[in-house]
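Lab manual, section 2.4: Encoding a predicted structure.

Procedure: take the sequence of the chain (106 residues), apply the prediction step described in section 2.3, and record the output as structure tokens. A sample record is shown.
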Amino acid sequence: MKAPLILLSAICLGACGGTGGTSNSPKERAAAACEAEAKVRIGDKTYQLDAAALAQSAKRVDDVWALQAPIIIEPGLRDEAKQTLECKVRVQDGKPDEVTSINFIF
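Recorded output:
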């Protein structure tokens, strides 16, 4: 009885990939850099941004990744603002990711 349970557990753990749920793909690195820059620009205000949607939107244009996703600034408050975050990020191995452009579009 223990052998099938151990085998099933091993298969499930193997499917997780052993990376702790993180990925270092260029798309995800670009999305993380874009969100970090957006957070700096927004300051102390709260916001909602779907990081997975931002990464999924990434399209490579020359040596830069272009991303966009909906962002809500001050969600649930009187000053709530729904916008689109557009961002361009240069991702190069061995170098810090560089946000080359960021826009909040109403």
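Check your result against the sample. DSSP finds three helices and five strands in the chain.
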